[in-house]
Automatic annotation (TrEMBL):
Residues 286-314 are annotated as: Disordered. The keyword Transmembrane helix applies. It comes from Thorsellia anophelis DSM 18579. It comes from the Bacteria. The chain crosses the membrane at residues 95-116, 128-146. InterPro entries: DUF6708. This is DUF6708 domain-containing protein. Pfam families: DUF6708.
Length: 314
């Protein structure tokens, strides 16, 4: 079955489900109301429930509903695969509003100069204070937009190591305070504690669904952390296929090497320049891309140090 026919079949099943609810509501209002209440009050298997949760994806041992295929894919080897998560910012559009805000912040200086010529400085002191506060706010906004454009990575990588059965989540901690230091962290999770859910996004510029992974305490369904595996798109089927891809890859099963899309959909800039914004810690970078040594627990640190050393040329 082709991809287009699969997509049509999936959409048809969604239409049939909605039609069934409407038909039941018209023919048997009481039964229809019961069905709607069950739909609206459904809950996730993983508690506390993540924000804007829609439904849980199949467990790792029940992933046959959709064919496996990644939406985007940076690299795929026997040891690891790397999936990018893109941010829907208007990167090129950051320059103009930040520059415009910066220039506008100096416009009121002419008014400030006229107030000083009046000679009665104390009379205008409250207005002068408000002027400086507004000017500082505009300058901070311009600096924030410049900082987002220059420092924020266009894509955030997530690595799945097949041999170690671990997930390495790269996170860029952007803050609304432009003068604070924006840091990066890498979280490492055991794959057996990671589960997939679909979450919804409702907003002016960010509408659709996300593939969100919840991290539970070992052996339980208690959520202790979460991260986004695939950013907002409108196709739930493709999110389910990406989850199927990840599950099959970790299990050592064959997966398609070609994703749905290639390249970065949010920018056309040089990939080499963008790659410089991603700085994995050296040991984590090596660990996430390699097979563990035979005596892993005892020799892991020494093994990573040896891998980090440059190899002599022949």
């Amino acid at each position: 079955m082709s991809h287009r026919s699969e997509e049509k079949s999936f959409q048809q099943s969604e239409i049939e489900t909605s039609y069934k609810l409407v038909k039941e509501d018209l023919e048997n209002p009481q039964q229809g109301e019961t069905m709607k209440q069950c739909f609206l009050t459904r809950q996730s298997r993983y508690q506390p429930q993540v924000k804007l949760w829609e439904y849980d994806l199949p467990e790792k041992d029940n992933i046959q509903e959709f064919k496996p295929r990644a939406l985007f894919l940076n690299s795929l080897t026997e040891e690891y695969c790397e999936l990018p998560q893109f941010y829907p910012y208007l990167w090129g559009g950051m320059w103009f509003p930040s520059l415009l805000t910066f220039l506008c912040s100096f416009a009121p200086f002419s008014l400030f100069y006229m107030l000083l010529l009046d000679g009665n400085f104390l009379k205008w002191l409250p207005g002068i204070i408000m002027f400086f506060l507004g000017w500082l706010l505009l300058m901070s906004l311009a600096y924030y937009m410049f900082k987002v454009y220059l420092l924020h990575p266009r894509e955030i990588p997530i690595r799945l190591n097949r041999k170690r059965k671990k997930v390495y989540v790269y996170q860029y901690n952007k803050k609304y305070n432009p003068y604070a230091k924006w840091t990066t962290t890498v979280k490492v999770h055991d794959w057996q504690d990671v589960y997939g859910v679909i979450t919804a996004r409702v907003g002016r510029y960010d509408q659709g669904y996300r593939l969100t992974c919840v991290v539970c305490k070992p052996g339980t369904k208690e959520v202790i952390d979460e991260f986004v595996l695939v950013g907002t798109i409108g196709n739930i089927k493709q999110l389910s296929e990406t989850w199927n891809f990840c599950c099959r890859y970790i299990l050592g099963m064959k997966v398609p090497e070609t994703p749905y899309f290639t390249g970065n959909p949010t920018t056309s800039e040089d990939p080499a320049r963008l790659a410089k914004l991603i700085k994995w810690p050296l040991e984590i970078d090596i660990e996430s891309r390699t097979t563990p040594p035979p005596k892993r627990r005892r020799n892991e640190k020494q093994y990573l140090q040896q891998e980090a050393q440059p190899q002599p040329e022949d």
